[in-house]
Amino acid sequence: MRYVALLRGINIGPLNRIAMPALREALENAGFDDVQTYVQSGNVVLSSRAKAEAVRSKVEQAIAESFGLEIAVVVRTAADLERIVKANPLGKVATEPKRYQVTFLDSKLTAATLRELEAVAAPGEHVVARGREVYAWHPAGVARSKLWAKLAGKSLGVTGTSRNWTTVEALRALAGG
Fold first, then answer.
1. Where does the chain hold its CATH 3.30.70.1280 domain(s)?
2. Nearest CA to 7 among 147, 140, 167?
3. 151: three-class secondary structure by DSSP
4. Does 12 have pLDDT greater than 80?
């Protein structure tokens, strides 16, 4: 089974630095096959016979043992990525892939948290939750977006990590979708 492992909060600023060749080696040593990385922000495509939850746990453990870092990981299958791309609920308004984000969550948001996200969205921003993903369009970019700050923070009540649409599509292609 092909999986995408999304690492939260690595290689952003001086903290939690992991070189991608070293990450690939650590995951291969942990027993994963066909390990590939995409850019420097913690996107890994790999193969395993294990279930998604076991893959998540094993990736987190390999990172802790190899790099001494506690990094949260969110895992999706290649089929999940295909479904996520096909769903694309904001495709008609999100015209710039670098400003269109998908936040991958380890579980669904509560209705109250989704209302909080909707409340902080600036005029023109859009947010749609579908299962364990939140699609967000930031036409003015993410730099000053309160919606983005809330999605990127730790106040969602669940573990999440975001990727722009360009990265989502690239990961789908790498995973074989």
1. 2-79
2. 167
3. helix
4. no
Cα–Cα dist 147/176, whole Å = 31
For 47, the enclosing helix (H) or strand (E) is strand 43-47
The radius of gyration computed from the CA coordinates of the chain, to the nearest angstrom, equals 16
Bridge partners, residue 100, by sequence? 137
DSSP 120: H
Beta strand 43-47 pairing with 33-38 = antiparallel
Rounded to whole angstroms, the Cα distance separating 137 from 40 reads 23
State how far the Cα of 8 lies from the Cα of 167, in Å rounded to an integer: 14
Q: Which residue has the tokens 């987190």?
A: 60
| 3-class secondary-structure state, position 54 | helix
DSSP classification of residue 97: G
Beta strands per DSSP E along 53-143: 73-77, 100-105, 126-130, 133-137
Encode pLDDT of 19-30 as tens digits: 999 999 999 999
Fold of 2-79: Alpha-Beta Plaits (3.30.70)
Whether the predicted model's global pTM rises above the 0.85 cut: yes
Q: Are 45 and 174 in contact (CB under 8 A)?
A: yes
